[in-house]
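A note from the maintainers: we've had questions about how concatenated examples are separated. There is no special marker in the raw files; a new sequence line simply starts the next protein. For clarity in this README we add a label.
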Amino acid sequence: MAPLAPSFESILCPIDFSDCSRRALSAAAWLASACDKPLYLLHAVHLDMPHYLSEDTKSKVLEHWKNVRGDVSTHLREWCAQACDLPKDVHFEVSDAPPVEAIIAAAHRHGSMIVMGTHGRTGWRRVWMGSVTSRTIEQARVPVMVIPPAEGHESYA
């Protein structure tokens, strides 16, 4: 009997620069190497501009936003390179969409399996802050692997 082949074309790992994200990146990098698949690393930086701003103010904010986006792209590359050994076939993306929307779109665009961390929040902290991981699992039509926080993380307290 032949082994089952992965049913995904690449690995997508959303990055929020947290320790939980670093753990997910390590798992995603290992999986991408083990399966000989490309690795896509994504950071979402959503700017929700208030409707009451003048057009002049909006254009100034958007101009500044382009610079911020470039800085984020550089930081993403540097942070990921320091976090773990990356596979050779790695791609970096910065999205302007809200995080869940950006993750779902990138996963579908690349035929990716998603590997992401969770902060492990429960109860009111989860209700109040929301859970990108939970909403991604609910909305994704691709496999999602969730890497829990390290033992001793604040969520274990």
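[label: protein 2]
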Amino acid sequence: MKEKIKYPYRVRLVKYLGRAIQDTRKNKKMRQSDLADITGTSVKFISDVERGKETIQMDKTFVLLRALGLKLYVTPDPIENEQ
């Protein structure tokens, strides 16, 4: 069983974003079809996002994030800023 995500959750790869979306959806007791209906996307798209498919459409992904009450922040990497 996967460990529950703790927020804030660091997203380094598309698959981590998908995991955060899936975990939040499940915590809200939503099926993929429920989220698809709310967001006007398809179950296939939601499945692709949750599996970390790297060709996801970001505009639709932001719709999913908003529907689940999630926000995406971009912050500078402190290690790279020291150089």
